[in-house]
From TrEMBL:
InterPro entries per UniProt: RNA_pol_sigma-70-like, RNA_pol_sigma-70_dom, RNA_pol_sigma70_r2, RNA_pol_sigma70_r4_t2, RNA_pol_sigma_r2, RNA_pol_sigma_r3/r4-like, WH-like_DNA-bd_sf
Record domain RNA polymerase sigma-70 region: where: 36-103
Keywords linked to the UniProt accession: Sigma factor, Transcription, Transcription regulation
Listed GO MF terms: DNA binding; sigma factor activity
Organism: candidate division WOR-3 bacterium
Name recorded for this polypeptide: Sigma-70 family RNA polymerase sigma factor
Superkingdom, taxonomy of origin: Bacteria
Keyword field contains Transcription regulation: yes
Statement: the UniProt record of this protein carries the keyword Transcription: yes
Amino acid sequence: MKSLIKPKEELKSLPLTESELIKRAKEGNDEAFEMLISRYEKKIYNLAYRFLNNEEDAAEVLQETLIRAYRFLKKFEERSSFYTWLYRIAVNVALRKLKKRAKESKVVSLDEGIPQHEEIPQEIPDETQNPEVIYKRKQIQETVQKALAELPEAYRSVVFLRDVEGLSNKEVAEILKISVSAVKSRLHRGRLFLREKLKHLIKI
């Protein structure tokens, strides 16, 4: 007699597309959801870490992002890729954490320490590939990351999304829910702040 109960389907052995995994996850298949997030959780963690510069905070952002993705998956209309949708959730979660951190710390004027009539610096030129230069470049990258972490919160989010993540002004404006002109203004001031912090590294 043929069994009426179908054995549990092993999704990992099936050549399912992302769209098919999303469909199954929306239907309540937890294995499909786990397969989806396993593709991107490392990227989301790295995104959160670059944004917050703190391992514990990055882990919390990842956890909350995945919880929200699971909770609101049925509202995902697939107008963008799953990663883009997940990415936007992560950015918003990280921004809330930044705002909370800002409230808990001493309020600093957004204009403090920023030269008012400076040009945006040129990129540091890439000269050679010898070990000494590679080591120095690594030191420079660490210094830049530290300077980015010291940016006032409003500037950091714009500079991070625009210059580190490579989003357009319009995309940044949509994520932060501010105007494109505000993005341009904060980006300019953020870059000036970074130039002041990194002026010893910039060859003029």
